[in-house]
Structure formats: C-alpha cells, structure tokens
Amino acid sequence: xxxxxxxxxxxxxxxxxxxxxxxxxxxxxxxxxxxxxxxxxxxxxxxxxxxxxxxxxxxxxxxxxxxxxxxxxxxxxxxxxxxxxxxxxxxxxxxxxxxxxxxxxxxxxxxxxxxxxxxxxxxxxxxxxxxxxxxxxxxxxxxxxxxxxxxxxxxxxxxxxxxxxxxxxxxxxxxxxxxxxxxxxxxxxxxxxxxxxxxxxxxxxxxxxxxxxxxxxxxxxxxxxxxxxxxxxxxxxxxxxxxxxxxxxxxxxxxxxxxxxxxxxxxxxxxxxxxxxxxxxx
Amino acid sequence: xxxxxxxxxxxxxxxxxxxxxxxxxxxxxxxxxxxxxxxxxxxxxxxxxxxxxxxxxxxxxxxxxxxxxxxxxxxxxxxxxxxxxxxxxxxxxxxxxxxxxxxxxxxxxxxxxxxxxxxxxxxxxxxxxxxxxxxxxxxxxxxxxxxxxxxxxxxxxxxxxxxxxxxxxxxxxxxxxxxxxxxxxxxxxxxxxxxxxxxxxxxxxxxxxxxxxxxxxxxxxxxxxxxxxxxxxxxxxxxxxxxxxxxxxxxxxxxxxxxxxxxxxxxxxxxxxxxxxxxxxx
Lengths: 282, 282
Description:
The structure is a homodimer. Chain A contains ten helices and nine strands. In chain A, helix 4 (79-99) packs parallel to helix 5. By secondary structure, the first copy, chain A, is of the alpha/beta class. Chain A has helices at 24-33, 43-46, 51-60, 79-99, 118-139, 162-173, 187-190, 196-203, 236-245, 267-281, and strands spanning 11-14, 38-40, 64-65, 67-68, 103-106, 143-145, 181-186, 207-212, 252-254. Chain A is 41% helix and 12% strand. Chain A has a single domain, classed as TIM Barrel. In chain A, strands 3-2-1-9-8-7-6-5-4 form a nine-stranded parallel β-sheet. Chain A is globular. Chains A and B meet through loops of A and loops of B.
C-alpha cells in the first residue's frame, strides 16, 4: 500500500471540495502550491472559458487532470432529449481531451420527470454510455461510470451498485486488456456495500478514478454534508488497500461536498486539512 | 395479482403511519372501523401496558397483527451490550407472542458508537439473529429481517440489500420448506436495487411481511419524509406483482413516516387516503 504521507503527489483535489468560490485559475495555483499531484475540474469552471488556456495553466502548475466532472444526465422523457444529452456530453468530452483528463466522469442521471420506469432509465444509460464510449475513444478519453449511493437513484444516478456499473462495462465493452470504459469509485457511494471487497477485485483495471471523503453520523444533508476524511465512519484505509490491491495506481482524490462546513472555510485551510488527512486517515 | 380495491382485508396499517399521537386502543378502533384487515403496533405503544388486554382488543376488533415493530439494535461496543440487546429482543418476542403477531421485525442496527468496522457489526448481527431465531421458535414467533435502505447503513441497519438478508437466512437456517427466519420487504428500502426482481423470486417463502409507502422527489428528510403510495416514484404495483408471484399472500402494509405531512393530518383522513391508494396506486 502506498504511503500517502511521504508523497502527496499521489493525491488529487476535486475542485468541488473547495466550494466553487474562486476562479479556476486561483484554484489551480492553490492546489499546486499545496503540493498535490492532480486536480479534477468541473464543467461549470471550464465551459464558456478558454479551455486551452486553462489546460496550459494546469500543465504549467505541474498538475495532472484526473476525471473531468461530470456528464449531463442521460435519461430523458423523449428521444430528442436523449440525443441532446448525448450531444452535450460529446462537447464535454472534447473539453476533457483539451484538458488532458485521464477520464470523463459519467454520473448517469435518474428517472426522467414523471417516470416510474427505472428499467427504461437504465436502458437509456446503457445506450448512451455505448455512444459516449465510442466518442471518447475517438478523442482519446476514457469513460468512467460513477455509481452513486442509492439515496440518489431516483434523481441523480439509476446506477447505484459497483457491480451494476461493472455489468454495464462488461456488456458494452466485453472482456478487454486495456479498457476504455471503467468506473470511478467514490468511497462515499459504495462503503456500505456488502459485496465491496469482491466487486473492487472484479473491477481491477477498470478502476479509472478513486474518490474519498467520509460519511458523517448524523448526516444533515445527504448531498452536501459529506465529511473530511477521518471525521466519519468509513474505513477509508481499508477501502484504499482493496483498491490498490486490485491494481489501481492512480490518484487518490478528495471530493467533499460540504456547504455546512468545509465550503465556509478558507481554501488554504481546507487544503491543509486534506493534506493531513490523506496522510493520517486515508 | 390480488385486487386490493375489492378487498381491503388484504391491507394492513402500520401504526407508524398515524404518527403515534393517540393511545393504541384508539388507533386499533380507527384501523378496524376503516375496514383494514390487520395492524402492526410498535413497542412504544405496547411496553409498559397490559399486553394481554391490548391483544384481546385487537382480536375483538377483528384485526390480525402483522409484524411487531421492532427490535432493539443488535451490535454493541462490548459483549455485555450485545447480551443486553438480545435480552431486550427476547422480551419483545414474548410480547409478540401475546399479541399473536405473524412475525417480529428485526431492524438490526448499524455501527456501534466509535466503530468503523462494518464487518464486525454484521458478524454480531448474524450471531444475534441466530439467537433470536431460536428464541422465536420457542415462542412460536417468526423472525423477519428487514433490510433498510443504504442511507441507514451506518446508524440503523448494516443489512442493506435484500440479497444480504437472504444470505443471512440461508446461513443461519439453511434450506427449509417452512422457514422461521425470513424477511420483511419494504418497497421504500429496496425499490432502487437492480437485482430486485431476482431477489424477490429467491426470497419466496421467506417473505413474512410487505411494507409500502413511496419515495418522494425531492425527499426533504430521508427518515421522516416518506410518501403516501402514489405520490412518489416507486412502481409499487410492479413490486407487489413480483412479491405475489413469489408466493406471498399475506398483508400489504402501509408504513409511512411523515412528520412533514401525514402525521399532521387527522388520523381519519390518513386512513381514508391509504384506503384509496391501496386500491389505485399499490
């Protein structure tokens, strides 16, 4: 197992951790200055800006780009909506390529408004993911399906289980030595799964990204009350050991949605605590 | 598939639906008067009262008792705590027997305070369930494990998946024609599971209870903002059809925790709407 305390270059900061309060240029410099090895920007920080300039700034700061966050939700009430969602994601994949991202993170979406048909939503996800895999390959960008916690199944991701995401990968891409379709594993979303150990081993080369934060007890808000590593009940070190045993040697990325706490603190403080918690609680 | 519109006697009311605002005697009479076939009382309404008298009142009202709600959480920080939790559940099983309940509902509990070891909590659950199965058999009471939604894994139930609950049943009781250990299936907790169809078929004779309510979008509070059948996104009719195809012919029970809505309404109104939604949305 890698020693994150001795080499912070294995660690990445997802910009969501910092609350989207500063322009991306300021965030890039802060993350680099704090000694991290990579950054994960969000589309809200990139779209409408000069992507090439931002990409150069990230490179010159010495940072890699992990996953580009994130997809437009795929399921729609009609075919025109579906097509528009795919097209939006193709444009985002173009930007991911300019940024040199290691993957494009697919948060697939839940039930279209008015629908109770979860099977139909999942069928749209399979179809859309296949289209985006093809487009991603043409741009040199891997697609990372991120299963979300089942508390989000209705409105954010009808793909909830790691095994479910892996089944989709197998179905679309089949068995392959060098996958272009994989998963982004976020400890917050999967820590509770009784099949986690088995499924992480199964994921193996399909692990394109690894996110950490913590599950607070009690949780005030299931979307925006995620905890700093070490402040909750997830055994992050155990999960990281499983992920690394499965062959993952990419970045360990902090992604902490926290309107109630960390997003209120100065960016430098949040980065300093991340640094310490990567070393001692991840 | 049974026609709930033509026979409300297949339907049950879990007293949690009514917000615990009236004495159990008043609730019993209201549920019976509304035409339902059964009731599920909670320990808070029974313990400290004369259980035999309450049991007689339920019988004389013409109601069956579905599941007696619910267990003391099993996992504890030490062996003395574990033993105390088991003992508390044995006393509740005694009461379930007096009430003539069809099962004792086991909500198993989450991580003991200070622990991050979910495997250890699950091991305590297996051990405790085995003890309670044995005790239940001696009192003629079946034990119904209720897997809860993964949003509660940390603090209410480290058993989240239906498959996980069934694995525990198989492990403890083995294959049997007349199971004493089974599951209570609550649509709210399992609707999102991609393996639901398969796992309900697998559950078969182990389905001891079936709870319904709905998942609201958005959900204001994951504990106490459950929806009336038909007001959310769960395809309840589809799930009921799977449960009945699996052989379940017991009660369909409304259990709606709703501090924000139904618990503020007059009991008679909530019961009338339940009646209509059993018929038209379940």
